[in-house]
Design brief:
155 residues, mainly alpha, 65% helix
């Protein structure tokens, strides 16, 4: 299986978006070394139970639902439109889960750089999604239009 496809936007900006989300994940491990506001333990437990763990579950299920169609970017080869599993509820459950992890990271380590990484990653990924949707509309035409009528972009 080929993991990397074609970027929907300028490749430098594309990978800045991807690396920004990786930065949010790194901040989860840097809490001890970063001077940031400390939320109470109850807030952190709620964050873990209501945002972080559900995000990981959504991420894993979404990856499983994509199967061989999983790519960072657009596929070079033939693929099918995924409309089952979590893709019945969101056209972009992987992105939803990654944004949720970023939010959880910013609650756990509310440092300005972590928050800035989440904002950059979210904005860039929205632009990436718009490019992906243009590709999918061209490839799947009426099937894509019907899917968009029934399933929201995010939630």
């Amino acid at each position: 299986m080929k993991l990397f496809g074609i970027a929907t936007i300028n490749p430098v900006i594309f990978y800045i978006g991807k690396l920004s989300f990786v930065g949010n994940i790194i901040f989860l491990f840097l809490k001890r070394f970063v001077h940031a506001y400390e939320f109470s333990n109850i807030v952190l437990i709620i964050n873990l139970l209501l945002i972080f763990i559900p995000a990981l579950i959504i991420f894993i299920i979404s990856l499983s639902n994509l199967g061989e169609s999983l790519r960072v970017g657009l596929p070079n080869e033939e693929t099918t439109l995924k409309t089952t599993g979590l893709y019945r509820f969101s056209r972009n459950p992987i992105y939803v889960s990654v944004i949720m992890v970023g939010i959880a990271s910013c609650i756990y380590v509310p440092h300005w750089l972590n928050i800035a990484l989440l904002v950059v990653a979210t904005l860039i990924h929205h632009i990436i999604i718009l490019g992906e949707e243009k590709f999918l509309h061209g490839k799947f035409k009426d099937q894509w239009v019907e899917y968009c009528k029934n399933v929201r972009r995010y939630l």
